[in-house]
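REQUEST
  id: r-88c1
  op: predict_structure
  target: Aldehyde dehydrogenase
  payload:
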Amino acid sequence: MENLKKYQMYIGGEWVDAASGDYFETDNPYTGRPWGLIPRGGQQDVDSAVNAAHRTLNSVEWRGMTASKRGQLLRALGDMLGEHAPHLAEIEVRDNGKLYAEMSQQTEYLRQWYYYFGGLADKIEGAVIPIDKADNFTFTQYEPLGVIAAIIPWNSPLFLAAWKIAPALAAGNTLVIKPSEFTSASMLEFAKIFEKVGLPAGVLNVVTGFGVEVGAPLAVHPLVAKVAFTGSETTGKRIYATAAEGLKKVSLELGGKSANMVFEDAHLDNAVKGVISGIFAACGQTCVAGSRLLVQRSIHDNFVHKLVDLARTARLGDPMLSTTQLGPVTNRPQLSKILDYIGIAKQEGAEAVIGGKQPKEASLQAGWFVEPTIFIGIANSMRIAREEVFGPVLSVIPFDDEEEAVALANDSNYGLAAGLWTSDYRRALRLPSQLQVGTVWVNTYRAMSYMAPFGGYKQSGIGKESGQDMIKDYLQKKTVWMSTQEEVPNPFIIR
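RESPONSE
  id: r-88c1
  status: 200
  body:
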């Protein structure tokens, strides 16, 4: 254990050990071995962090800072993140096993959220109401909600954290962040950069640990005004119920079982690449994974053949190498879950035309790898087609016509995203409004931007992230009435 890198939590502008003094190991998914020690926080640490955030929220230093100054500091943070992007990407790869080729792009791009919302910070404007009451001047103004609890998943920690941190700070809130116990290191490395920007101590705090010991106490804390969560729908529902007891605001970005729909008039080679990207990029560990392929029956066999041919070329290996196309699963419990679902699919009668097991290459034995897997013979009622696997497992479902494709796509408890591959521009314009999802990609997949709202329908969550309007999810509106009358009229009646 002496050789493992030891981290501390970041609370109130100071680096501290957990109150308990306990640590837990964080593993490298490629080697299957621990590489760092993370503080195991608990109730006392949560209290310290929330109290620090609350003190700063009400401090003259933060409350009195102009919105323009907040924006300037957020943009400075964006600059610093750009300088440290390669280092942050290496930490993310070591902790979650995703490809350096993708993580380096993510850590480079995440600065844009701080630029964008830094630019919006001083453009939050109230309005004067042409009120119908004589001798009154009435206006609205926006104010921060308060202390925000941000609970971050393990698949893209810094990227998804930026979606919460940037708008929350731009709006004048303070934050306590709880990263996943599987991938805490990158958020602690982020905090090292954050503290150099010049924002007041306590504006951002990071408490590490397990869900029951840190996440739950954070969600119920009386000084927390909002919980912003990304993760599974099971945990999201618990947070929603818990937050309701304290009348806290919530935003929940949860799971998905997204349909990638391919019509016979599509550019098939492009569609094949889009389907591969939708399910095998990031080892399928994305909430928007296109895990259900709906393909028109007239091209089903040919398309599946092309798909298998391309999937067979996927190179599994060290995620730090540019030649690797599919890295390991992020954590051991997730590996077991994926393998369990593969077993369930086979029991249900599905046929794996490729994959369906762990690779046998000696070089991959230490890591948590799963072969890219494609199942045919799938009915939309099967568990493999209805439940989120969160791994490189694709279910292929044929359809006959547009009406059936839409019905199959919508026949899901989830509603996060969908893909549509067609050369018919009428269909491309017509179908998105029929799909019960928050994002529709036409002839592309997994495109993201700080400018575009993101969030789901149905069991995929509540609220949106990114985009200009969502900053108001971190604000509350106040109405101010000012009388211009010389004397107070009859005090016994409503004005």
